[in-house]
Amino acid sequence: MPELPEVETVARDLSGELVGRCFVGAWVGRPGILRFPAADAFTRALPGRGVVGVSRRGKYIFCHLDDGQDLVLHLGMTGHLTIAGRGTEPVRHTHLRAPLDDGRELRFDDTRRFGRVLLGPRDLLEELRQLPVLGVEPLSPEFSRERFDALMRRTTRAVKAALLDQRVVAGLGNIYIDEACHLAGIRPSRRASRLTRRERAALHAAIPAVLSRAIADRGTTFDDYRDLWNARGLHHERLQVYGRGGEPCLRCGAILRRTVVAGRTTVHCPACQR
Q: Averaged over 116-131, what is the pLDDT?
């Protein structure tokens, strides 16, 4: 599933292409992709709306419209957004097409169909529980050391389980938790409440560092993730542990161990991470 760096990359790309543009139509090929409203209401409401901004919250992309509504997009596991030129044939599993006033159109294809689309005022979507409660953004000023300390001290869950919880820190997932834990020298299976003050500080610093590097590389591609232009992310070339179980640690040479934490495949270095 695309995580924060991948979603941030797509959101930045969309901002450059959609801000100042106006939707002039809407076509929904699979109504199930719409979580709110129903397809007929969606296709009536989107045309005529201009895009005034694009932002990201957790793994959600928000296209802010000029009438106060948001077009909210979640990529799920295999979702892909693209801006297609006039006359370009849609790829298979294209579930949403939204023509723009410049002749191009925003398209959303999703092979496994776990993606979702919403349209409405953000406060209404939250009130209807169409948007989840999300924790602190790890690249924001609110992600302070004091706040992170409090979040870690109050849970007895494994570090990885706590960080996977989107209500704790928004946008993190399997890849970047493993990478941040390695950078901080902490086993993902450690109980969060048992981390020392120094370890919490190291993990707090490692999380935004790992995310920022991945954003600079336009995300990580293993299977399905592509950016708005259908290009692969390049960060897989920098991964230290994720997907490398059984290989030597790039820092110390010890063989990386593959385990399961919080139901997710997890890789760590038995020598570097304590």
A: 96
